[in-house]
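Summary of Year 1 activities. Much of the first year was spent building the evaluation harness for sequence design. The harness presents a backbone, in tokenized form, and records the residue chosen at every position. We chose the following record to illustrate the format because it has been used consistently in internal testing since the harness was completed.
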């Protein structure tokens, strides 16, 4: 998705610009696959900013952010992590899915993100690293309904006073997004696939289904059509078969919806 220009359908780029100019950190909130990462990368590219990024998970450690000691030919050195490097250089730092991180990792982030914008390098010399004035941090979080996510502590939330809510776009906008990725357009089939995706998203929102398809899936549907796959088969491959993970009853629910929309 990153090679295609981001379609800024809700003026998120303008808000990012204002926050950057004001020196305010930004939090982008929304489900997976709504274009959060594409928005951030497009913004950095347009502003000609060097972008450092961390994708958080339960396996992300303090050392990924701060750095680690290494032993080379009997000499101990310290390889600085991505947080320290970005602070020193004043680069843009992207903290993706920050609410998947462990508590100890969040504590060190909180230290760096407060109003002083500094952190003590206790793992090495104890040097206090102070971020350059133009250091800019953008984080994303997924809703708590997503697996592996946790509620962010209030003090860390307060470090990101500008919050952008990024949901799935209206159907006409999603169609335009798919068109940016698919050269040969099968518009009526893609419109139907978007309606299917929204039906499944709505069912997942009220916990009738376990999974909510993203923009990536509607784009994938269009790309399969380009390769000669029928609309019904593409719908099964992209939207239907994943529900097998939760058993045949879940799969059959979605299969019936696909058949009603695309025929036998």
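For this record, the design step produced the sequence shown next.
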């Amino acid at each position: 998705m990153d090679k295609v220009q981001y379609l800024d359908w809700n003026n998120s780029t303008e808000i990012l610009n204002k926050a950057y100019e004001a020196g305010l950190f930004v939090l982008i909130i929304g489900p997976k696959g709504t274009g959060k990462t594409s928005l951030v990368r497009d913004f950095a590219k347009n502003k000609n900013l060097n972008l450092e990024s961390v994708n958080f998970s339960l396996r992300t450690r303090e050392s990924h952010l701060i750095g680690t000691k290494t032993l080379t030919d009997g000499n101990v050195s310290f390889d600085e992590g991505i947080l320290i490097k970005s602070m020193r250089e004043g680069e843009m730092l992207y903290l993706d899915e920050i609410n998947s991180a462990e508590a100890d990792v969040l504590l060190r982030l909180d230290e760096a993100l407060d109003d002083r914008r500094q952190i003590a390098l206790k793992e090495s010399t104890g040097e206090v690293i102070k971020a350059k004035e133009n250091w800019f941090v953008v984080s994303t979080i997924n809703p708590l309904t997503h697996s592996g996510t946790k509620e962010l502590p209030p003090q860390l939330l307060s470090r990101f006073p500008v919050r952008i809510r990024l949901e799935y776009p209206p159907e006409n906008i999603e169609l335009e997004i798919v068109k940016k990725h698919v050269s040969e357009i099968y518009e009526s089939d893609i419109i139907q696939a978007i309606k299917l995706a929204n039906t499944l998203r709505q069912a997942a929102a009220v916990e009738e289904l376990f999974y909510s398809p993203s923009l990536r899936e509607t784009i994938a549907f269009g790309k399969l059509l380009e390769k000669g796959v029928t609309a019904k088969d593409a719908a099964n491959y992209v939207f239907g078969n994943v529900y097998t993970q939760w058993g045949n009853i879940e799969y059959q629910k979605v299969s019936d919806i696909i058949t009603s929309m695309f025929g036998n």
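Strands lie at 26-29, 51-55, 67-72, 75-80, 92-96, 118-120, 128-130, 136-141, 162-165. Quantitative recovery figures across the full test set are reported in Table 2.
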